[in-house]
Amino acid sequence: MPTVEEKLAAAKADLAERDGVLVAFSGGVDSSVVAAIAHDALGDDAVACTAKSETLPEAELGDANRVADEIGIRHVVAEFSELDDPNFVENGDDRCYHCRTMRLGAMFDKAAELDIDIVCDGTNADDVSAGHRPGLRAVEELDAYSPLLQHDISKAEVREIAEAYDLSVADKPAMACLSSRIPTGLEVTEERLSRIERAETVLRQWGFTQFRVRDHDGLARIEIGEDELSRALDEEFVRAARDHLTDLGFEHVTLDLHGYRTGSVSPEGDARESIDERASNGERGGTTREQADGDASESGPQGEPLVEDVFSTEYPTGGQ
After folding, report:
1. Mind listing the pLDDT tens digit for each residue in 172-223?
2. 127 or 11: which carries more pLDDT confidence?
């Protein structure tokens, strides 16, 4: 079995044979490694491209700019709107397929402007066996090239390569696009995306690193990584989160005591995980991405809700 070093050398030699490549680039670890390899192999003939839309948090675009500077690769932005597609807005089970199709389509349009024939993405060898990932269908249909997958580079090996390139995102958690916080069947709107992004900004400002704010049509469900969950019980944070999120338009603000879980609003009967976790640009194997996912389905088997209506449930009191 080839070593990580041998796989890296093969991927670099592979890309060096191309006239030029455009890397679908989110600033996550997968697409950053592809960008670093491409820049190493092709120099100025490699370009990183981030697709900017309503579902990309502004902080993630800032990270992408910073990581591109670390690598030294030319960085461009392709703008588009997923909200232009009613198939995406209705937020069905295939939302990620429609998103990925539009996102990669924007990448290919930008590549054509730059006279580049090949678009690379960050799908790695683990992604193809990671459950229901409709976004991968778009990769195949549009014929994007996945060098990590082609050379059997796993997620763990991606992080090892990132460390070898001294990339600051080597240990970065996957980040899903904002639409993954909205349950399947609930329309994706600019208003919902905006309040989710602003709500998560509060968590980021408090120093949390692994989190999501799920938007259950007016109920905010905050998920915090297990290692950080105890900090979320701090009274000062509770007051700040409640007040800020209420100001943003959420009617109820809750903390999920299970903590952060990828695919936490996915059907229990499906193998679906967070197809958005690596889905953003090259991470959508995308997100994380998340990409991506995805994190998006709210219904369980036979349409039963996975999240119980806690406001209509009778609980025992201390006198019972």
Report:
1. 877 788 999 999 999 999 999 999 999 999 999 999 989 999 999 999 999 9
2. 11
Q: What is the residue whose two structure tokens read 């194997």?
A: 285
pLDDT band at residue 306 using 50, 70 and 90 as cut-offs: very low
A 10 A CB-CB count for 266 gives: 28
Is 295 within 8 Å of 309 (Cβ atoms)?
no
User: How far is Cα 27 from Cα 33, in angstroms, rounded to an integer?
Assistant: 9
Distance separating the N- and C-terminal Cα atoms of the chain: 64
DSSP 124-178: -TTGGGSS--THHHHHHHHT-B-HHHHTT--HHHHHHHHHHTT-TTTTPPP---G
State whether 123 and 158 are in the same domain.
yes
Same domain, 17 and 125: yes
Round to whole Å and give the CA distance between 94 and 96. Answer: 5
Instruction: Indicate the pTM of the whole model.
Output: 0.80
Identify the residue with better confidence: 140 or 257. 257
Residue 273: which region, alpha, beta or left (left: phi > 0; alpha: psi -120 to 50)?
beta
For residue 257, the enclosing domain spans 178-302
Read off φ and ψ for residue 209, nearest 5 degrees. Answer: -115, -25
Domain count, the chain: 2
Clarify whether residues 216 and 93 are in a common domain.
no
CA angle 161, 276, 167 (to 5 degrees): 25
Peptide bond into 293 cis (omega under 30): yes
Domain co-membership, 158 together with 220: no
Query: CA quadruple 225, 231, 233, 235: dihedral positive or negative?
Result: negative
Whether the CB-CB separation of 32 and 38 falls below 8 Å is answered with no
Please state the length of the chain.
Answer: 320
Q: Which residue shows structure tokens 């392709």?
A: 78
One domain, residues 30 and 53? yes
d(C-alpha 132, C-alpha 297), whole Å: 12
Angle at CA of residue 49, ends 48 and 54, nearest 5°: 150
